[in-house]
Amino acid sequence: MNQEYLLVHRSVLPDSFFKVLQAKEILRRGEVTDVTEAVRMAGISRSTFYKYKDYVFEPASDSHERTAVVSVVLLHESGILGGMLTRLSEAGVSVLSIDQSLPIRGKAAVMLSLDLSGMEGDLKTLEKVISDSKGTEQVKVVAAS
Q: How many domains does the chain have?
């Protein structure tokens, strides 16, 4: 038995836990992309959201399987894609698939399918890891679950 988790009836939990779940769902569905707006809609503070977001899950949700599809425009130079893949790996991200276009005017479009289950943080963290990689021109999260 895992000593880190408890099974607790929802009637004894504070409302803030359910509001954190609501804010996470608002973000997941893409109703808003900003945490500030999602927590406002859910009726909680940002600090409450960040305090509990990585610890409160619905029983039906699988918190260990997180995936994303990301579109990236990279400079077409030797080592740029490899450097970005190394940074992703260091952040705990596993690459499921890569689709790269032919370079046009020194730039190449890359579509990545990623497993985020080993990464700490949210989609903003992922975007930062990629955008901070050398030679990255543009990053867009196309889909996430």
A: 2
